[in-house]
Amino acid sequence: MKIAICIPTYNRADLLVKTVQSILCQTYQNFEIIIVSDGSTDETKEKILKINDNRLIFLELNKNFGYPAKARNEGIKKSNGSFIAFCDDDDLWHIDKLRKQVNIAKKGFDFIFTNKSFINN
Length: 121
Hints:
The protein is of the alpha/beta class. It is 31% helix and 19% strand.
């Protein structure tokens, strides 16, 4: 079961790299990561393209729309997964997040959500 992970972003390159790294470390590895830049003007594209993983898809919107829904919807259009997982550009995922959610999805659930923890740095 392939999971499409959609991450909208705007000018948060350093946080985004940490987010992507936390996803790449998942115990469940059948996924694609679709990063959609909402007109970022920082080093987002350069930093993401340095990550050598063929599961990464980077899309750029031609301008900043100012809300993540536009970028998410564009990412969904490009997705090839059985399920879509939303992720914000400042989220860090627990190493077993996807494995646990896929195991629940295999039981027939169409929608799954998780709890959260806050990191204060």
